[in-house]
Amino acid sequence: MAGYRELSPDELRYDCDQSCLPFQTTEELPPLDEIIGQERAMRAVQFGLAMRNPGYNIFVTGPTGTGRSTYVQQAAKKFAENRPIPDDWCYVYNFHEPDVPLALRLPAGVGEQFREDMRDLVEDLKQVIPRAFESDEYEKQKTSILQEIHSMIEETLLTLHKRAEQEGFTLNQTPAGIVTIPLKEDGSPLTQEEFQNLPQEARQAIQEKNRRLQAQMNESVRRIRELEREGTLRIKQLDREVISYSIGPHLDRIQEKYKDYPVVASYLDSLREDLPRNLGQIRAEISRASGDEAVDASRETGDRAAQPGSSPEMSYLRRLTVNLFVNNSETRGAPVIYETNPTYYNLFGKIEYKGQMGTFFTDFTMIRSGAIHRANGGILILQARDLLFDPLAWDTLKRTLKNGEARVENIGEQFRIIPTVTLKPQPIPVDVKVILIGTPYLYQLLYHLDEDFRKYFKVKADFDDEMDRTPEHMNKYAQFIASVCKRQNLRPFDRSGVARVIEYSSRLLEKQDKLSTRFNDVVEIIYEANALAEADSAPIVTASHVDRAIEEKIYRSNKVEEKIRELIEKGIIYIETEGAVVGQVNGLSILDVGDYVFGRPSRITARTYVGDSGVVHIEREVKMSGRIHDKGALTLTGYLGSKYAQERPLSLSASICFEQLYEGVEGDSASSTELYALLSSLSGVPIKQGVAVTGSVDQLGRVQAIGGVNEKIEGFFMVCKAKGLTGEQGVLIPEDNVKDLMLKPEVVEAVRDGKFHIYSVKTIDDGIEVLTGMPAGQLQRDGNYPEGTINYLVRKRLDEFAEKIKEYHDS
Q1: What's the rounded Cα separation, in Å, for the pair 116 and 119?
Q2: Phi and psi torsions of 759, nearest 5°
Q3: What is the mean pLDDT of residues 119-137?
Q4: How buried is residue 224: exposed, middle or buried, by Cβ count under 10 Å (0-12/13-18/19+)?
Q5: Between 32 and 48, the higher pLDDT residue
Q6: 110-133 and 279-288 are packed helices; what angle lies between their axes, rounded to 10 degrees?
Q7: What does the angle CA 256 – CA 259 – CA 261 come to, to the nearest 5 degrees?
Q8: pTM for the predicted model, two decimal places
Q9: Region 661-667: what's the mean pLDDT?
Q10: pLDDT confidence band for 419 (50 / 70 / 90)
Q11: For residue 168, what are the CA distances in angstroms to 191, 202, 208, 214, 682?
């Protein structure tokens, strides 16, 4: 009994039963508000979101187009709805360490109120301070202090003058200070010449009196300076009392409002202490400008001398600004941030600089937040590939997750040869759930090459590209189509159109019992079918529109396929589809040109001769084959040895070649084809050229499943159709691939009409019988194969080779 079978038309594709679709058009269906066919990944995402322990961040992996990003964003937003709203963060001036701005943590919405209150305080300062220092009472007290000090200074000077008169001197005020001049008896000044003409005793007496007077003068000058300093201090104290009296109520109001927030209370205490010390600067700023112009002017004038780094000359009014770093006043639930451009600065913030007069300056008001800060207390979603393009971003993300805090520092500070003064903002503690979205390949690379990766991304959510083809899933597929139509304002699909989309989904997977979850590819057909229906002015998209959309999509991409087929038709690429040839088989392979995959036949030839070099693959020898193909080729020797060389050595030299193949070969799907060519060459029995072959083989002779079975069959069918269908042509495929068949209706109709045949086989013996029309032959109890079989002829030829080699060596 033959081990092969010819497939019936019903086995060649699975048509969607429209009776399973209980609707007329998709307008009747509710939109799909969930993702389908991803139960495993969905459970993983939900688990990862619920885990609050450190390190349970999520890496979402799977093929592109399976709805990973859409689902993750939906799941994250739904989860975050019931989470608490995170706090606001503000940066304020540090009166004790200006280069280390203070980070204030306030409840959501309070940060914005605090910023407005400090703005109001600045406006109050502009109004209250000039009024206070221009008041009559202030001028009266200041004048009183100055008069009192002046009176005491005058009294001190008067006493000094009296003492000078008693000693016979007069005092003269000069730019260099007070000088003493001795007087004559008549009260007139003694000139230098007169002084020199005096007797020595008189001169010495005058000099002695002058020394005593100088000591008194020094004491008086010291006393005057003390009085002047006392006057200055008393005026400063008056100023403090005035500003405390005028500004105190405003500060008290703010301090009372934020008494429950110790960080704000501490900041306001520092401000209260610092204001009087900088009263002169404040009054100067207010006097230079008024209103908002004061602040703007201060940015230009106060910072103009600053060097790159912090701004020691920044205006005082600007110091009272509140930099609302993270504002959650409008946030509902926990924040969900999807950062589409995860560069270092976009993720971790930056300190901006402003150019002024050939230099750059910055201050705490120019600290900008990043996505990690805005997502604090919530969820941050990133594309892994985009993140890894910036190595600093990846390393900083791991460091942030490790330390639980986010620092704002510019990249340049890490690589600057000479350290410079710059801002060092206080770090902010972060509690964020990070979700990375990437391919399985990226996941494997990170898992094996980055030892930190498995510490911080403990949850893997693996999206599948397929799901079971069940009535429930087919109906959800219809709902998915309805959702796309309603969301994009497309024409509705009828049942036949939905059925075609479902069939196309199975075709994408090459599995009759599965549906594709690569919804991006499916959506393309939905869009294009709608465009064709619109061109036809059809109100509903039907199966014919879907079929045309698929055909048009293929036509846009299959130029290379048609060129190769044209070369085959012209005989430039030599492919025989009729007759029988010894040692020659039409093998089937696929070509991937990026956006399109198609099957093409390749002529595989084998030649055998006396020798002991074994099976030589010409592609392998010239390094035109890949490792998987080489593995499949080496399998042939194992098969031949186990089947035909149990009693004597395998004496064989053979060469196998893919004729007219110039781009190289990879994969093991041609290993059975190569073996058929070898068996034909050894047995001398010709192989039907109208039957093409695909399938890999193991050392036991079992034919194994391969990929691209639909494209391979259709590729050979189109060649046969172009050269003329004879009714004898067909394709030989592994039995395990039967369930993968989703052939085009044209091929199915040709099989139904007897113009084309598709056979399934389980073993090499099954396949050789189809290809040669001769039985393979089963091993008998005596260890021989029956005469008139392929295996008998093969063994006989191998025995002849062995004898000839023996005779050659003996001679």
Answers
A1: 5
A2: -115, 145
A3: 80
A4: middle
A5: 48
A6: 90
A7: 145
A8: 0.81
A9: 84
A10: low
A11: 14, 13, 12, 13, 147
